[in-house]
Amino acid sequence: MKRSDNTTHAVAIDLEEMGATPRTLTNVLTHINSKLEAAGLQTRVGRELVKEAPRTMTVNGKPVTLPAGPDKFALVVRGVSTETVRFSPAESADAVYVVQNAGSAGGLQLLKFQSDTGGDAPAPIPGVGDTQWVEGRSSQTTLPPGVGTVRASATGPDGSLWMVADLTERTGNQPIKGQRDVALIKVDSAGRVVMTQALGAASTASGYAIAIDENGRVAVAGSVTGALEPGKSGDVATVADSFVTVFDAEGAELWTQRRGARAADEATSVSFGPNGTVY
Fold it and tell me: Among 58, 54, 83, which residue's Cα sits nearest to residue 69?
């Protein structure tokens, strides 16, 4: 925890200190908040109701609406403007990510495997709703509909995974303008998709490379045909140009640069240099 006066407070949360107290959500929150209060901090952790929505799937070519699942509760940080919260695990382990086709509809799944088995980090166990679990797998994530080939990936300083992939149909409330767009997807360390950002190409675009700096900024490079920014379609509208787009740690676009010649070209690599320079 970092305060506005630049003082840092490390607060260890160990549920083993609860002893024989049942690990109910109320008791766990009481334990966490007592630690924060003892450290003289104003930030608290609370609960938030997460209501499930009905799901629609296609069966024999016809849409079928499934009822909403049971309500869930999530932990939420109730912070103040003078304190910045940062979480870090007591023990960490290296991981390997695998993207695979899943199901008859051709959707994609992201699997996370714990590769470091010699440390103190606990071994993964099956999660609720996991299918075909194998030893060492710590999460199973269904990627959003419309996400095609995953071209590149990189891990952020907070343990999240960022992927750049082809997007062939709308995802969420983000329609694609042309035939194919670039999707920037962020998955947290627990395997949850927390953000999907479409680039917004008017015709076709592909992302081929991704890089992340120490502050969490994300750079994506690739090729685009047609307009990428309003009114800017390149010197030859029907020929692919290279592009680089930089996003902040939350996925908001900071800037885009497009470079092209009379022939087709593409950017296949990107990296951060000193002082935020992008190469």
Answer: 54
Q: Tens digits of per-residue pLDDT, 223-272? A: 888 776 665 666 666 778 888 999 998 888 899 888 877 778 888 899 99
The answer to whether 256 and 197 have CB atoms below 8 angstroms apart is no
Q: What is the pTM of this model?
A: 0.70
Gap between the Cα atoms of 196 and 174, Å rounded = 9
Question: Sign of dihedral through CA atoms 78, 80, 81, 87?
Answer: negative
Q: Are residues 198 and 118 in the same domain?
A: no
Shared domain for 191 and 212, answered yes or no, is yes
Quote the domain boundaries for residue 162.
144-276
Instruction: State the CATH number of the domain containing residue 244.
Output: 2.120.10.10
Handedness of CA 269, 221, 178, 165 (dihedral sign): positive
Q: What is the count of structural domains for the chain? A: 3
Same domain, 70 and 149: no
